Amino acid sequence: MDLFFSPLACSMATRVALYEAGADANFLEVDSPTKTVLNDGSDFRAVNPIGLVPTLRTDEGVVLTENAAILQYVADRFPQAGLGATQGIERTRLHQWLCFIGTELHKGLFIPVLDRKAPQETKAYALEKNLSRLDYVDNYLKGRDYLLDHFSVADAYLVTVINWTMATPPIELSKWPNLKAYYERLRQRPSFAKAIAEEFELYKAEQARRKAAA
């Protein structure tokens, strides 16, 4: 299978899930500004017209988009890794967390704050409205190791998103001690440690390319 990704973007959650599953995959880096697949110079929009990562092309050639859907596919595709949840309320809770992370944290809080073109008023509004979501997660994680009763793709997504606090000074993780402890513990997990190290190096190379092109 092929995972189209950009360094340290939300697509890193799928890289983590694939590492957890011990799955073979081709990792194809997408240059965000140009939508070029760096591995071969092709136009990423020929695969995903919207041009957003992650995009996963399965071994059968099916193209999947949207982080929550791709993560659930990986969990179902490799059940031996235990990254998903069985039918019933636990699977619903997994859906709940993937939706919450994607809408309330990823798009609602972090995207406006990370957007270099967003007006300061927009950033301030996003912080005022959505920081309470971190309060909710922090309170939920008190006395818990994971979002479910085991490590799941929801944890892969949450840690990937919380990793962005390194680039968002207004969101100081120390204000949420349970979330901070959770993040620091899980980023030491081999799958996360490997993914973060690899993608950080790619991110530095990406920034160097942009500086040279400016």
UniProtKB/TrEMBL annotation:
Pfam families per record: GST_C (PF00043), GST_N_2 (PF13409)
InterPro entries in the record: Glutathione-S-Trfase_C-like, Glutathione-S-Trfase_C_sf, Glutathione_S-Trfase, Glutathione_S-Trfase_N, GST_C, Thioredoxin-like_sf
Sequence ranges assigned to domain GST C-terminal in this UniProt record: 87-214
PROSITE patterns, per the entry: GST_CTER, GST_NTER
Domain GST N-terminal: 1-82
This protein's name: Glutathione binding-like protein
Organism: Bradyrhizobium zhengyangense
